[in-house]
Write a structure and sequence with these properties.
By secondary structure, this protein is α+β, with helices and mostly antiparallel strands. The protein has 6 domains: about 100 residues, Rossmann fold; about 150 residues, D-amino Acid Aminotransferase, Chain A, domain 1; about 70 residues, ATP-grasp fold, A domain (Dna Ligase, domain 1), CATH 3.30.1490.20; about 100 residues, ATP-grasp fold, B domain (D-amino Acid Aminotransferase, Chain A, domain 1, 2-Layer Sandwich); about 130 residues, Glycoprotein, Type 4 Pilin, CATH 3.30.700; about 80 residues, Beta Barrel (OB fold (Dihydrolipoamide Acetyltransferase, E2P)), CATH 2.40.50. Helices cover about 30% and strands about 30% of the residues. The strands form 11 sheets. Strands 27-28-29-30-31-32-33-34 form an 8-stranded antiparallel barrel. The chain has a 5-stranded parallel β-sheet with strand order 3-2-1-4-5. The protein has a 4-stranded antiparallel β-sheet with strand order 6-9-7-8, with helices on one face. Strand 33 and strand 34 form a beta hairpin. About 45% of the residues are buried.
């Protein structure tokens, strides 16, 4: 710190006082996370909520909560006037933006300044400069930081961009200048696809950030995505807090992050940290921010962009440095000098974070909406859960479908991976589909365990296929857990068993139950389930030894004796002699879902015939005549009209949901009979959008 800064610090520090009340202009897990630190620092918190979030976890956790508008983010969480007015009304002295929404909007920063409210983040000028990927890249080049070859000129003409793409050489990457998170980003491998991909990138960028400006970069083969956390105060002190590797991504959205990176040597870490600090200082940056780099196989790194906010993956940096980044954000915003030097920062141990999303792996990971009927959080040494969802909460179409971040810490990377597997095995979510099986497959994958984590990791590893094969070893226990829970559910209304499994005779006294999965043969009770298009039969017979002990036979294998116990949160504990297995079981009218050892088993139960369906003769052929919305969203583009002939896989309708575009394509060559919606219409998940002939 120079002499001038020392004098300035002595003058300013006399007026330093911590905030008494902070408004969090966000929702979900990041709002809950910020509130936790505020609570520890004795700061009162103010939550804001939309109609969809009236009973959300972040609302329940705050000291005060204010309604700010309807469910669509544009009418609530993105409404600057409503948030500023709420801050005034509540008496909040500062606003923490979290990430997403208004966190990187310089107009919001300026509105806070005009209202006399402290914005917990960088100045508007630095945010505006670094928020433009084009200008940020120019600044990086000016301070000698390496950048990816590309085009970031002013012209946005299609012809100019195509010409520059050919100059760079395919494959190229189209990127939105504003924002991040993979929105408005397209990989283009052939010149013939460029203009269509350009149009899609612009539409998505405009919908997500209100700015359709794009730029081009050379697509680097087999890269790693490595980012550097920086932290700076208003007195010119700025340091780097080490790196996070975020290479494992899907649709350019990070799902696994870790620190430190196995690819960095101490020398490379120092060079990347120095480059990050140079760029941040040149931008006049204050508070927490992240410099993102691409690292190639030769150890050469390239600056990509800066995120002028707290990152989703900040917990891994907190665990390896021992720092609370939100606390430092608050201290810096309140005027306190940074009390850390670069020499004090070094990583200890290893931390990994995975993002648990409400997504359906069987539907190309489309977001899954609905009520979370069960969320069992993992516990144990070195396990941290950041979540804005609890059992009974709802995942809606309006916001990001993240359920939680599972973060683990170990003394080294193998220890952290072992804890990650443990955390995923303990987790259970029902009511919505999740990507938990994919996360578990990653944790089990040899390439991941060896640190071969490139951005193409998910494409190359085919993890879901591997996971399905590995899951077979636990299917036996999953079928038994389902049968035990189902037989209790089938007879609950006719047999008060007080925690003990009812007898087969209790089932036989209810003739209506014989239309379900259960059949009586002698003393045995049989249940039939379908899993991945194969039928499995479970036979249960009382042993007469213990009230909670039954003889169980699965698919004709030798029978085994099982004792069981029901626990809280739909838990079933199975005991095979000395071996124990804990499963979580949820029932719907059509299926029983079992969560066991990090896997989800959807076991379809035998159903009575549907008279109406049988009478109509509904079959697969007629089902293909209607094309439905894969999830709730807005019709962005209708590319066909009634009576128009179409080819197989031709794009008919483009749906926008959760800031991403989803296409509805023709399943076969035919003719469009009728399009039920127009551009701009809002549709529900499962709604018939197009009828085909």
């Amino acid at each position: 710190m120079g002499e001038d800064n020392v004098v300035l610090w002595k003058e300013e520090i006399r007026y330093y006082t911590m905030f008494k009340k902070v408004l969090i202009a966000n929702r979900g897990e990041i709002a809950v996370r910020v509130m936790a630190t505020c609570r520890q620092m004795g700061i009162r918190t103010v939550a804001v909520y939309s109609e969809a979030d009236r009973n959300a976890k972040h609302v329940r956790e705050a000291d005060e909560a204010y309604y700010i508008g309807p469910a669509p983010a544009a009418q609530s969480y993105l409404c600057i006037e409503a948030i500023i007015e709420t801050a005034r009304k509540s008496g909040a002295e500062a606003i923490h933006p979290g990430y997403g929404f208004l966190s990187e909007n310089p107009a919001f920063v300026e509105a806070c300044e005009q209202a006399g409210i402290v914005f917990i983040g960088p100045p508007a000028a630095a945010m505006r400069l670094m928020g433009s990927k084009i200008e940020a890249k120019k600044l990086a080049q000016a301070v000698g930081a390496p950048t990816v070859p590309g085009y970031n000129g002013e012209s946005q003409e299609d012809a100019t961009l195509l010409r520059e793409a050919k100059r760079i050489g395919f494959p190229v990457l189209i990127k939105a200048s504003a924002g991040g998170g993979g929105k408005g980003m397209r990989e283009v491998y052939a010149e013939s696809d460029f203009l269509d991909q350009l149009a899609g990138a612009r539409r998505e960028a405009l919908a997500s950030f209100g700015d359709s400006t794009v730029f081009l970069e050379k697509l680097i083969g087999q890269p790693r995505h490595v980012e550097i956390q920086v932290l700076g105060d208003r007195y010119g002190n700025l340091i780097s807090l080490g790196e996070r590797e975020c290479s494992i991504q899907r649709r350019h959205q990070k799902i696994v992050e870790e620190s430190p990176s196995v690819a960095l040597t101490p020398e490379l870490r120092a060079r990347m940290g120095e480059a990050a600090v140079r760029i941040a200082k040149a931008a006049g940056y204050v508070n927490a921010g992240t410099m993102e780099f691409m690292l190639d196989t030769d150890g050469q790194f390239y600056f990509l962009e800066m995120n002028t906010r707290l990152q989703v993956e900040h917990p891994v940096t907190e665990l390896v440095t021992g720092l609370d980044l939100v606390r430092h954000q608050l201290l810096i915003a309140a005027g306190q000098p940074l009390g850390l030097t670069q020499e004090q920062i070094f990583p200890r141990g290893h931390a990994i974070e995975v993002r648990l999303y409400a997504e359906d792996p069987e539907q190309q990971f489309l977001p899954s909406t609905g009520t979370v009927t069960l969320f069992h959080e993992p516990q144990g040494p070195g396990i941290r859960v950041d979540s804005g969802i609890e059992s009974g909460d709802e995942i809606t179409q309006f916001y990001d479908p993240m359920i939680a971040k599972l973060i683990v810490y170990g003394e080294n990377r193998p220890a952290a991976i072992a804890r990650l597997r443990d955390a995923l095995e303990q987790s259970a979510v029902s009511g919505v589909r999740t990507n938990a099986s994919l996360l578990y497959a990653i944790a089990q994958n040899p390439a991941f365990q060896q640190g071969q984590t490139y951005t193409s990791f998910l494409v190359e590893q085919h993890l879901l296929d591997e996971n399905a094969q590995q899951a077979g070893s636990d299917l036996y226990d999953a079928l038994i857990a389902a049968a035990i829970r189902d037989i209790a559910g089938e007879t609950q209304s006719i047999h008060a068993h007080n925690g003990a499994l009812p007898t087969p005779q209790a089932i036989s006294r209810n003739p209506w139950k014989t239309l379900g999965p259960w059949r009586m043969i002698g003393e045995n009770v049989y249940a039939t389930y379908r899993y991945q298009n194969e039928e499995h039969r479970v036979a249960i017979q009382p042993t007469h030894d213990l009230a909670d002990s039954w003889s169980v036979q699965v698919d004709g294998q030798p029978a085994g004796t099982i004792t069981y116990a029901f626990g809280n949160d739909d838990a079933v504990l199975l005991r095979h002699g000395t071996r124990q297995a804990r499963a979580y079981v949820q029932r719907t009218p059509e299926e029983t879902t079992v969560f066991l050892h990090g896997q989800m088993y959807r076991l379809q139960r035998r159903q009575p015939p549907q008279v109406e369906t049988a009478a109509r003769g509904t079959g697969a052929g007629s089902m293909q005549k209607t094309l439905t919305a894969p999830m709730a969203g807005t019709i962005l583009k209708v590319q066909v009209r009634d009576g128009q002939p179409v080819e197989q896989r031709q794009v008919l309708v483009i749906l926008s949901a959760m800031k991403m575009e989803h296409t509805i394509t023709a399943p076969y060559a035919g003719k469009v009979r009728h399009v039920h919606y127009h551009e701009g219409d809002v549709v529900k998940g499962g709604a018939v959008v197009v009828e085909m002939e």
